[in-house]
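Bumping my old thread because nobody answered last time. Still need a sequence for this structure:
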């Protein structure tokens, strides 16, 4: 019996440099799978209601309550990899999650979540390196917010 995909992934990474290589290779794969942009038609009100009903009015990623006037229709299969601009390929998301998800592949999303969860745990344990990274993260977020305001 072969090892589960997650274990194979960890074994292939081994070091921080390995993680860097993996992230870069996932980006290349995305470029290779890029398809020609198809003009997107806006969803009708009825289609938007159907998309929002799929999760009972909550963001499919973080679960926050959203409503018909403020949700993003998030592609399940990203349009950059050939996902269609149709209601059956959309799930409702809040703007924060949709903007963060961008068009990352499933593997990239899983790595990002694992890194984030790991760092969060280290921050709560007051690990010195994690606190340094957290300070840099907060500075970065503040810079982004200040840029948006001006
Ligand atoms: Zn969300």
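Sorry it took so long. Here it is:
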């Amino acid at each position: 019996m072969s090892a589960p995909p997650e274990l194979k992934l960890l074994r292939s990474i081994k070091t921080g440099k390995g993680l860097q290589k993996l992230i870069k290779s996932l980006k290349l794969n995305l470029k290779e799978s890029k398809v020609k942009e198809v003009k997107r038609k806006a969803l009708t009100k009825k289609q938007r209601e159907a998309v929002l009903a799929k999760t009972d009015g909550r963001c499919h990623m973080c679960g926050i309550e959203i409503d018909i006037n403020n949700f993003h229709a998030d592609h399940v299969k990203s349009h950059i990899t050939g996902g269609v601009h149709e209601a059956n390929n959309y799930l409702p998301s809040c703007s924060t999650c949709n903007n963060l998800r961008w068009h990352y592949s499933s593997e990239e999303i899983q790595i990002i979540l694992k890194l984030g969860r790991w760092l969060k745990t280290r921050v709560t344990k007051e690990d010195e390196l994690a606190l340094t990274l957290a300070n840099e993260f907060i500075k970065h977020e503040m810079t982004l917010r200040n840029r948006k305001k001006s």
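The chain is about 55% helix and 5% strand. Let me know if any region looks off to you.
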